[in-house]
Design goal:
Number of strands: 4
Radius of gyration: 30 Å
Distance between the termini: 100 Å
Structural class: mainly alpha
Oligomer: single chain
Order of helices and strands: HHHHHHEEHHHHHEEH
Largest sheet: 2 strands, antiparallel
Number of helices: 12
Helix content: 55-70%
């Protein structure tokens, strides 16, 4: 709360030089730039998240093989609780060893969201205190009164969907204004989240990735789950969420264009752009790395169990054929 309030106050002082200090522009832009600072600080975690997700895709067949292996062992000892726990512990150790070997972690994709949680919660509580007229940290009485007068399209930044009409009337707003603004912002939020997830699933996933089905389900479910939260969050928090979504869209656009997942649609488009650029400059088009072609010579197994290539055996000729030669 101290960090968040200090950053917002500093941005408010800056934007107060260009806009009316009590306006929605001064306070709204303060929240927008607070979000940008947080997301910029999380770029290293975002890079780590991308690398981890790609590594997870690479080792997914090995993970599935381990799961199948220990599933059979667990079935065999299902009536022995001690041995069953031993099998589960062994499976967990091998899984962690596999993740460590490839430098990945299944929880790495959650790191940016987890790190944002304290800032997000603090902003929520900051706006809650503003609506209650409470002073705290760097938010003095004058700043709290100023923030309560700030409106975004007619809705106070500290108001939420069910704010009483009597309280809104003190700041020159109505329930209809607040509900309209929140509904529109929620729709925009759902749309941006859906577009972001859809692009990631359809363009940046390898066709053989077994996690695509789960990602498609989340693509349709998550926007509606977050919509319920939008109806209890203050307008200022919705500004934070929308800014964060637009930042994520920009990050994703950069990744899809410059560093897509190998084998994905975005990767194919990336190669096509590089080929077109090389052709335009008169250079040979870059060739995608391909697996070496296997020797199609038939292989036989010897009595020792080793693979040995079959050589062409000379055909037997008859005495009449040799005479003709």
């Amino acid at each position: 709360m101290w960090v968040i309030s200090w950053v917002i106050v500093q941005f408010h002082k800056f934007f107060g030089l260009f806009f009316i200090p009590n306006s929605g522009w001064a306070w709204g832009l303060s929240i927008v730039f607070l979000t940008l600072v947080i997301r910029a600080a999380l770029i290293p975690l975002f890079v780590k998240q991308i690398k981890s997700m790609r590594a997870m895709q690479v080792i997914q067949p090995q993970v599935k093989a381990l799961q199948e292996k220990y599933k059979k062992e667990a079935e065999r000892v299902k009536f022995d609780p001690v041995k069953k726990r031993e099998v589960q512990a062994k499976q967990q150790r091998e899984m962690m060893a596999l993740y460590k070997e490839h430098g990945t972690n299944p929880f790495a994709s959650c790191l940016p969201l987890l790190v944002q949680a304290p800032f997000f919660t603090s902003l929520y509580r900051l706006l809650y205190n503003v609506s209650a007229g409470k002073t705290f940290a760097f938010m003095t009485y004058a700043l709290v009164a100023s923030a309560n007068q700030a409106h975004v399209f007619g809705a106070p930044i500290s108001a939420h969907f069910n704010t009483p009409a009597a309280q809104l009337a003190k700041y020159g707003s109505t329930s209809a204004d607040v509900k309209t603004v929140i509904v529109v912002m929620t729709i925009v939020y759902m749309a941006t989240q859906f577009i972001t997830q859809r692009q990631m699933v359809l363009k940046n996933s390898a066709p053989d990735n077994p996690m695509v089905k789960q990602q498609k389900m989340l693509m349709y479910v998550m926007p509606f789950m977050m919509a319920f939260f939008c109806f209890v969050a203050p307008v200022g928090v919705l500004i934070y969420l929308l800014t964060s979504n637009f930042w994520t869209m920009g990050q994703q656009f950069y990744v899809l264009r410059n560093s897509p997942t190998p084998g994905s649609v975005a990767h194919q488009q990336h190669l096509e752009r590089k080929a077109a650029k090389a052709t335009k400059k008169g250079k040979p088009a870059p060739v995608e790395d391909k697996a070496p072609v296997q020797d199609e010579t038939p292989v036989s197994i010897t009595s020792t169990g080793r693979n040995k290539q079959q050589r062409n055996q000379p055909s037997r000729t008859t005495k009449s054929q040799r005479t003709k030669r």
